[in-house]
Amino acid sequence: MTLVVTSGLLLFALFCFLIWFSLPVFFTETTSVFSLKWQPEQGHFGILAMVFGTLLLAFISTSVAFIIAMGLNSFCLLSRRRWLVTLLRTLLRFMAAIPTVVYGLAALFLLLPLLRNGLQLGSGYSLFAAVCMLILLILPVICVMLDNITAPLWQQYALGAQALGFSPEQIYMQVILPHCRVNIGGAVLLGFNRAIGDTMLPLMLAGNATQLPSGVFDAIRSLTAHIALVIATDQGSEAYNSLFAAGMLLLMCSACICLLSRYLMGLQRLGQPE
Amino acid sequence: MSRLIGYWGRLCALFIIGIMLTLIGFILFKGLPTLELSLFFGDTAPLAAMMGLQPVWEGIWPACVGTLTVVLCSVSLASVPGVASGIWLASAPDKPAQKVFGLAVDILAGIPSILMGLFGFSLILLLRGSFFPQANASLLLASFCLALLILPYIACATQNALSSLPKQLSVTGAALGMTQWQVTYRLLLPQASSGIMSGLMLAIGRAAEDTAVIMLTGAVANAGLPGGLLQRFEALPFTIFYYSAQYQSQQELNMAFGAALVLLTVTSIIFTLLAAVSRRRNRNIFGSANSRKRNIYVR
User: Fold this and answer.
1) CATH, residue B171
2) Interchain pair A99, B1: CB under 8 A
């Protein structure tokens, strides 16, 4: 039991550390941190551009991944080629096991040359490239959750709905989906959390320019990549302060999303008749 | 309208299978030709390199050893508290303390890995500022932060494995006069062992692939074999990242692809084991056979 307490304390220590380190930032130089300018040489440590980049990245990739995940989920339930479904499910679980660095490496030498030479888009490091790979990264998360939610519902309702004359597609669209709308929201939030928290793909692919993007093919820098870059390049202590603010924001974000998604996913037990 | 979802599903499935085959095929295509002895050991004689007699400069052997060490350290750090908190969570899932702690574990599981790295980094700053001025990024720190990262996975897996056991098991144990510790240690844990094992394997996979944490807490590009707990070290994911970003020659790029292939192989082996274990778990006495047993009890 002492061990349990220790691990609880560790978590608590993590929170305390980040809050303690970032408090001065919020109280003393608020204007400096929450601005768009990141020019360490001139003493501007604004991280808003990075916040915006992270949100943009996460929103685009989650929404696209969600649409694809719906398609995959419907395929898993509806298709009559069961071997293909088994293959797809195994592949999705396998995708969750692939290291993000490998995704990054493959994109660096497969996707970027395509953008650079095929579409003539400068260096190719862009929001678009990072979004493409992030979709692949969060797709298994959303898909497996969706599968866990909808497969029992399908077993429960498919026969009855079929007897009422629904086609399989109609069962999926009009019986299953409305029934678990809230839980799907929870699954998507989990994917969103994963997209916010990933470091390697934005770091390797997004170009890391501290600017507001004007289109999908512009370079951006995400908060996570920002933390990694600043620590790697070893700038002064004031730059570190902005890091703790960034870490704080990420922590708050992911904690809120976790709580919300846990709540949404838990609603199933209340709403679903046994 | 409804019919469209069928077409869309088929399109997506083909699309994803195609993309993944392309990606994995690309890694295989680039990585397989580099996969020979010199990828691991460079110009050094393999045996001497393995014993650590000669340093390896142009090979990924030190990175392999570094990854292995850091994963072993972090799993051994995290497994005992993880399993313990899982047991505690499963022991009384409805008490308020457990609920709060379960929530904390959930949040911990969702925290971005780079924050664990940042935590380790600020830990160093704190130690340096207070009572341990020579503190530096090291293997120990990296494995500690990785342990924080994988702890919730182990705890969740243990909790799930234990709470899926039938209630009769612990009740019967108690009726036979076993103490709670004996029930847990002799009855529940052996029965839940495959679930806990799969949690551990998941944790190993996470620890092996994570780059962000070790990048901030001690992995460097050229450290040789890990010299001790307080030394910096090399790791496979970091090698891939480093050489893919700043390769000087074709040979270094080949090293990146070789390392990626090795890492991919390792994770897919772990994945296969995981799948095998969970399939066995679904089939063993606590799957179908046990529900029959439970019915006997109930009757």
Assistant:
1) 1.10.3720.10
2) no
How many domains are there within chain A?
Answer: 1
| Cα B29 from Cα B33, distance rounded (Å) | 7
Nearest CA in chain A to B205: A97
Distance from CA of B53 to the nearest CA of A (A): 31
Q: Which residue range forms the structural domain that includes residue A95?
A: 47-271
- Return the pLDDT at A235: 58
- Token pair belonging to B100: 């709060």
- Residue B30 belongs to some domain of the structure: no
Asked if the Cβ–Cβ distance from B267 to A1 is below 8 Å, we say: no
Residues of B in contact with A173 (CB under 8 A): 1-2, 5
Residue in B16, B114, B260 nearest the CB of A228:
B114
Select the residue of A17, A74, A224 nearest B119 (Cβ to Cβ).
A17
Q: Output b/e per residue, A124-143; b: 16+ Cβ within 10 A.
A: bbbbbbbbbbbbbbbbbbbb
HEC string of chain B equals CHHHHHHHHHHHHHHHHHHHHHHHHHHHHHHHHHCCHHHHHCCCCHHHHHHCCCCCCCCCHHHHHHHHHHHHHHHHHHHHHHHHHHHHHHHCCCCHHHHHHHHHHHHHHHCCHHHHHHHHHHHHHHHHHCCCCCCCCCHHHHHHHHHHHHHHHHHHHHHHHHHCCCHHHHHHHHHCCCCHHHHHHHHHHHHHHHHHHHHHHHHHHHHHHCCHHHHHHCECCCCCCCCCCCCCECCHHHHHHHHHHCCCCHHHHHHHHHHHHHHHHHHHHHHHHHHHHHHHHHHCCCCHHHHHHHHHHHC
Q: Is residue A263 part of a domain?
A: yes
Convert the pLDDT of each residue in B219-236 to its tens digit: 777 766 666 667 777 788
List the 36-55 stretch of A: residues with Cβ below 8 A of B.
none
Alpha-carbon distance values, B298 to A255, B169, B291, B292 (Å): 42, 13, 10, 10
Interface ipTM: 0.81
Q: Tens digits of per-residue pLDDT, B144-185?
A: 888 888 888 888 888 888 888 888 888 888 899 888 888 888
Judged by CB atoms closer than 8 Å, whether chains meet at B2 and A193 is answered as: no
Q: Does residue A96 sit within a domain? A: yes
Average pLDDT, chain A: 79
Contact (CB, 8 A) for B211 and B241: yes
Asked if A167's CB is within 8 angstroms of B27's CB, the reply is no
What range defines the domain where residue B150 resides?
35-298
